[in-house]
Amino acid sequence: MRTVLGQMGYDQVPQLTSSRMIDVQKELQIVPDTFNASTNRKRALLIGINYEGQQGQLTGCHNDVGNIKKYLIEHKGFAASEMLILMDDGRHHTPTRKNILDAFVKMTEYSQAGDVVFLHYSGHGGRVRDTTGDEDDGYDETLIPVDFQKTGQIVDDDILKILVKPMKAGVTMTVLMDCCHSGTVLDLPYRFSADDSEMHVDQGFQMNTLLGKLGQAGDVVACACLGLCLASILSDVLG
């Protein structure tokens, strides 16, 4: 994968993590074959932050959201009415820390067994010193909301607690993170990177971190977190 993406001009490569083992030789299904359109719903949360007027301003995150929205509607059958979009463009809900976390909560509350959730984040990612001792490298990965200077960053421990653990069993959730340090930002136990031939257990992962109050692994929602550059590839696919 690293060689192929390098030939395509991408100097960074995606990483896949999941709450369950995935056969990476098979197509990753955003909408599983078991989805029943008459009884279940497809929902999306799309977040794009350009940090306009701030140091470290970005330019392509709003375009990323547009590309993902178009892809989900045209290729995966999502309805625009079932999408919540957060962007710092003055026309959508602002991607503040509170609004992002509130959106995570809404996704867990609304989604029922058999539903599909797609979450996309395009913006800055970071890392801070781990204070709980659950990170093998000593750092927590973070998402950086537009108002981070006042409210702080969103730590991976919070994402696990607010988004992953409360998601009901039977919900299929795919998460596309287009930011730095994104590969492990959901704190999931299984990992596949560019130099691997198959998915494997993350040796630094503490399984009880994910299971916690859930108790049984069968109750854990299947989540996938893909790192930087896939949004750019999608823009090429959509033209």
Trace the largest sheet across and list its strands.
3-2-4-8-11-1-9-10
The fraction of residues in strands falls at 15-25%
Please count the helical segments.
7
Q: In angstroms, what is the radius of gyration?
A: 17 Å
Structural class: alpha/beta
H/E series: HEEHEHEEEHEHEEEHEH
Helix content: 25-40%
Mean pLDDT: 80
Shape: globular
Distance between the termini: 22 Å
Query: How many β-strands, per DSSP?
Result: 11
Unreliable sequence segments: 212-224, 227-239
Question: Biggest sheet, open or closed, and with what strands and sense?
Answer: 8 strands, mixed
What does this structure look like?
With 239 residues, the protein is α/β, with parallel strands linked by helices. The chain contains 7 helices and 11 strands. The strands form 2 sheets. It has an 8-stranded mixed β-sheet with strand order 3-2-4-8-11-1-9-10, with helices on both faces. Helix 3 runs parallel beside helix 5. It is globular. The two termini are 22 Å apart.
Note the topology.
Layout: H1 2-7, E1 16-18, E2 42-48, H2 61-76, E3 83-87, H3 97-110, E4 116-122, E5 125-129, E6 139-143, H4 148-151, E7 154-155, H5 156-164, E8 172-178, E9 190-192, E10 200-201, H6 207-211, E11 222-226, H7 230-238
Parallel strand pairs: 2-3, 2-4, 4-8, 8-11
Antiparallel strand pairs: 1-9, 1-11, 5-6, 6-7, 9-10
Helix pairs in contact: 2-7, 3-5
